[in-house]
């Protein structure tokens, strides 16, 4: 008698989609990062998007909390590297360089250098939408991986990781490009106006893919709004839109 041996995969297997890879492939990513994890759970969490978890728990084992920490670790390491590399630079110049080096596009570039896309754990819909290759996703994972290395190996190990990945970019052409927020602040202060303030106007979308609307506010002038997948991106968009509206010179300025 023939038996139907087809087994229904467990719910989590149907829900989670990763690019095909061998079980041992995480070792290849560790080799690229230059750190072998004592607790590989930190690495796995850094690669897990909230959509890959049933019920999309706000505080589950996904990368969002690591992204928060990694952003700060990246900032302090790059600030130290820039402080040492440019001993004669002003605070404003250092801030502009830092802003450009830690921005989303640069972090995504580093994630691509690390070839992290095949290791990302996504829900079925997000995987099919191409999220695996988008700058926003890759930038978040870059910061999460920095945090994972920081937690597992300590500050010196994370410092070495950031220096290897971001250090060569410090003197690349175009890395000193001014960002919109810095340019808007310089313009306002140059006119004797208060520094711009940024106020959240609206937040929409699900927790794992929010959309923020932020207003750039300068006393005495009409506010201007911007939109982005994070408050930081929305603030830069608002500042960029403010510059465009006021007809301020935009050479080399990025949103």
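Q: What amino acid sequence fits the structure above?
A:
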């Amino acid at each position: 008698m023939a038996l139907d041996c087809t087994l229904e995969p467990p719910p989590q297997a149907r829900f989670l989609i990763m690019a095909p890879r061998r079980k041992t492939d995480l070792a290849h990513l560790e080799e690229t990062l230059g750190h072998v994890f004592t607790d590989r759970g930190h690495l796995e969490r850094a690669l897990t998007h909230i959509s890959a978890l049933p019920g999309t728990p706000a505080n589950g084992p996904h990368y969002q909390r690591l992204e928060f920490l990694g952003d700060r670790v990246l900032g302090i390491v790059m600030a130290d590297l820039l402080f040492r590399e440019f001993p004669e630079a002003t605070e404003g110049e250092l801030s502009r360089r830092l802003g450009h080096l830690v921005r989303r596009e640069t972090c995504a570039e580093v994630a691509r250098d690390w070839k992290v896309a095949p290791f990302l754990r996504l829900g079925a819909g997000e995987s099919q939408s191409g999220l695996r290759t988008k700058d926003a996703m890759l930038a978040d994972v870059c910061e999460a991986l920095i945090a994972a290395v920081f937690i597992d190996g300590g500050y010196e190990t994370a410092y070495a990781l950031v220096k290897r990945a971001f250090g060569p970019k410090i003197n690349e052409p175009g890395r000193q490009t001014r960002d919109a927020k810095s340019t808007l602040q310089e313009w306002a202060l140059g006119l004797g106006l208060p520094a711009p303030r940024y106020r959240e106007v609206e937040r929409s979308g699900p927790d794992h893919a929010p959309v923020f609307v932020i207003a750039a506010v300068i006393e005495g002038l009409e506010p201007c709004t911007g939109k982005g997948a994070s408050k930081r991106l929305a603030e830069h968009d608002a500042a960029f839109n403010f510059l465009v509206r006021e007809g301020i010179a935009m050479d080399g300025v990025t949103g």
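Q: And what stands out in the fold?
A: The radius of gyration is 21 Å.
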